[in-house]
Amino acid sequence: MTPTYELDGSDAGGQFVRTALALSVLENEPIRIENVRGNRSTPGLRHQHLAVAETMVELCDADATGVELGSETVEFDPALETRSRHPRLEGGRYAVDIGTAGSVTLLFDAVLPLAAVLESPLRLTVTGGTDVKWSPPLDYVRHVKLPLLRQFGLVAACELERRGFYPTGGGRATLHLAPSTIEPIDLRSRGEADGLRLYSTEAAALSEQDVAFRQAEGALERLDDGLEARERCETTAESACPGSAIVLRLEYEAGPGGATGLAGFTALGERGTPAERVGEDAANAANRFLAGTAPVDRHMADQLLVFLALAGGRVRVPEETDHVATSRALLEAVDVPTTLERAADGEEPVVSVDSSAALLD
């Protein structure tokens, strides 16, 4: 295998690996990633990153080396039938067991962009952690990320079977992905505020303490005035271990580009932390966002860059986080140039990819 792109992950984490593998499939070009997760205290592939790499190998019947626990160098060649500007990927039904409370949603994140090259529907069922640290809770994916991306052509849905909290995991969810024509993204303005939706969940073991209700109350009391709660959903879920999560979705009227801004803010329950405080933490993040003008939250800003690479477009982001900077550097490394525009009046920056340079051009 002679890699087309040689990538260095010494200053990056798992998102770099997930996006690099997706880009390799989308471009149908072999890559070599060295110093995998090099800036982490335990570098190399951990269980959830290994699950992503193994899934990509299986989906493409790819040639790969270094796909093993702890590996700090990975070579991956999707080896789809023809080397072409527009490779095609067969769908099918797949099942993955991460084996720990590793994040189900981050595995979904790696696979979502592949909708652009699918020839038939893909159904991916994953067992692991559905609501765990350092990753978006499942309700963020279902109620924020997927609705936002559907505006730009993504055909996808997420089905929950069982919640999985840290440390046991054991949750299960299915991603349904169909062949999709991704359109250029225009999210430079979020329009007028159009309401709030709140999703609070508790494991059945916490139901007697009314954790879901108390999380919701804590969030609503802390949120800035003027937001109308259009939906308040509190659920009790079967799970192998106790846990809780809350997701706040802020939604806006269509901006000048015709797209509706959506932003999500999350928090997870922890032992010793009052449920009200968990809700307050999510609300505090929402309040900070409300002070700006970006139409997407800081976590979505990073996750959207691979979709900008697909079709081009412009997204105003709350800030250029380390994740955004790393993702931009990765796109540049695989020959997808990006631009960061800073407004003179201090308005949040706009990240853009010219459609002529996009992968699906």
UniProtKB/TrEMBL annotation:
Its EC number is 6.5.1.4. It comes from the Archaea. The lineage of its organism: Archaea, Methanobacteriati, Methanobacteriota, Stenosarchaea group, Halobacteria. Residues 190-290 form the RNA 3'-terminal phosphate cyclase insert domain. GO terms for molecular function: ATP binding; RNA-3'-phosphate cyclase activity. The gene is rtcA. The active site is at residue 323. The keyword Cytoplasm applies. PANTHER family: RNA 3' TERMINAL PHOSPHATE CYCLASE (PTHR11096), RNA 3'-TERMINAL PHOSPHATE CYCLASE (PTHR11096:SF0). It holds the Pfam family RTC_insert. This is RNA 3'-terminal phosphate cyclase. It catalyses: a 3'-end 3'-phospho-ribonucleotide-RNA + ATP = a 3'-end 2',3'-cyclophospho-ribonucleotide-RNA + AMP + diphosphate. It is found in: Cytoplasm. One of its GO terms (biological process) is RNA processing. Keywords: ATP-binding, Cytoplasm, Ligase, Nucleotide-binding. Residues 12-332 form the RNA 3'-terminal phosphate cyclase domain. One of its GO terms (cellular component) is cytoplasm. ATP binds at residues 109, 299-303. The keyword Ligase applies. Catalyzes the conversion of 3'-phosphate to a 2',3'-cyclic phosphodiester at the end of RNA. The mechanism of action of the enzyme occurs in 3 steps: (A) adenylation of the enzyme by ATP; (B) transfer of adenylate to an RNA-N3'P to produce RNA-N3'PP5'A; (C) and attack of the adjacent 2'-hydroxyl on the 3'-phosphorus in the diester linkage to produce the cyclic end product. The biological role of this enzyme is unknown but it is likely to function in some aspects of cellular RNA processing. Belongs to the RNA 3'-terminal cyclase family. Type 1 subfamily.
